[in-house]
Design brief:
Blueprint (H helix, E strand, L loop, with lengths): L4 H12 L12 H7 L6 H20 L3 H12 L6 H23 L4 H18 L5 H4 L8 H12 L1 H7 L5 H14 L5 H13 L4 H18 L8 H11 L16 H23 L6 H22 L5 H8 L2 H12 L7 H6 L25
Helix pairs in contact: 3-4, 3-5, 4-6, 5-6, 6-8, 8-11, 10-12, 11-12, 11-13, 12-13, 12-14, 13-14, 13-15, 14-15, 14-17, 15-16, 16-17
């Protein structure tokens, strides 16, 4: 999923505030020679350590936006898979990035502190080294949403998820899941989408619970009409759908029956229902951007998720094209259920909308009416 342009724009603003052209590039000749060696001695390891000490120090001191990006590239391009080199590179990166964060706190102006912190987190993100996770974890609760975004990004990028999906790192994945759960209520939709990507990618029991927690938060915000940037729900719904076992239903297949499978399916159906209901009930109060986002989610999920969980269909897309609210609601009831009849999705995936052993509910919870215009 594309990073929302606002994140990049805010980052640029922070960095432009501290621009100051003219910087000296770190010498890479010696470390490049070391990278070519098959076996390293102590002097070679010192060259790696010295390179990272100087390169990260320069990154912290740099104020020019273009030069900052170039210095990150210089560091990232000197990584290697050679055992001795990789180990020393990781150890030195961890040491000097930690020092960089400490140095940032001593800077006189808040915009410089913020800019350096973000740059170091982007470097951590680019290195994709699980050994650097302890540099980002303390930033997860930062009140600055740009800092928090890059902290989360550095712990949820595909390279990190691949490492977390090894038996040796499963406990670390569980720790991250717990940390992410703590910040969901206070995070922006962009950050929530990154956490959803993490939950969809990691192979731990807590993944489905985390996804459902994300869905529950979005559902609550739909219910009180405070939800923002509905377009992100397309990704969240796809991630939920990916966690529903036996997604491609066929004759003779066994539908998911476990409690976890039913919970994921229920979260998917309720969130999708609220997207549909918001579009219909909000016709007179939503702006054109909100309506456009909702239309994109409705059509995308019908094609990518409903078409996989059930069978390919275009009923909602056609109803949207005709701007027929009755047709959209009729398809909502057919797919998801009504007060009197269970929908096709609950029937196929064998779940209902009841929770905590309450009475069986055949329909999603109705979306409350929008607040009256002032």
């Amino acid at each position: 999923m594309k990073i929302k342009w606002v994140i990049f724009a805010v980052l640029v603003v922070f960095l432009i505030l501290v621009m100051n052209p003219g910087s000296k590039a770190v010498n890479t000749r010696e470390v490049d020679n070391v990278r070519k060696k098959a076996v390293l001695d102590n002097s070679d390891l010192k060259i790696i350590d010295d390179f990272l000490a100087k390169a990260i120090q320069e990154l912290v001191r740099e104020r020019d936006f273009t030069a900052i990006a170039q210095k990150r590239t210089v560091i990232l391009s000197r990584q290697s898979t050679q055992g001795q080199y990789a180990q020393q590179f990781s150890e030195s990166a961890r040491k000097y990035i930690a020092q960089g964060f400490l140095d940032a706190k001593k800077l006189p102006r808040q915009e410089r502190i913020t800019g350096v912190t973000i740059n170091l987190l982007i470097l951590v993100d680019g290195l994709k080294d699980l050994e650097l996770a302890d540099q980002a974890v303390p930033m997860l609760k930062n009140e600055n949403m740009v800092i928090r975004y890059w902290a989360v990004h550095s712990l949820t990028n595909p390279g990190i998820i691949t490492q977390l999906n090894t038996p040796a790192n499963s406990n670390q994945a569980s720790v991250f899941a717990a940390k992410f759960t703590e910040i969901l209520d206070t995070s922006t939709p962009e950050i929530t989408a990154l956490i959803a990507r993490f939950a969809a990618g990691v192979k731990i029991p807590q993944a489905e619970q985390l996804l459902c927690r994300i869905a529950d938060i979005r559902i609550k915000r739909y219910a009180d009409w405070t939800v923002k940037y509905e377009l992100y729900d397309s990704a969240i719904l796809k991630f939920l759908s990916s966690k529903i076992p036996l997604a491609s239903q066929s004759a003779g297949s066994t539908s998911p029956t476990s409690a976890t499978s039913k919970a994921v399916a229920r979260c998917f159906a309720q969130l999708y229902s609220y997207v549909i209901q918001r579009y219909v009930k909000g016709a007179d109060i939503l702006n054109n951007t909100q309506k456009s986002h909702l239309v994109s989610v409705l059509a995308d999920i019908e094609e990518k998720c409903i078409g996989t969980l059930l069978k390919p269909q275009m009923t909602i897309r056609r109803a949207l094209g005709a701007n027929s609210m009755p047709a959209i609601l009729a398809e909502h009831d057919r797919l998801l259920g009504s007060a009197t009849v269970s929908g096709q999705l609950p029937q196929t995936l064998k779940f209902d909308y009841s929770t905590n052993n309450g009475p069986k509910l055949t329909a999603p919870i109705p979306l409350p009416d929008p607040p009256a215009k002032k």
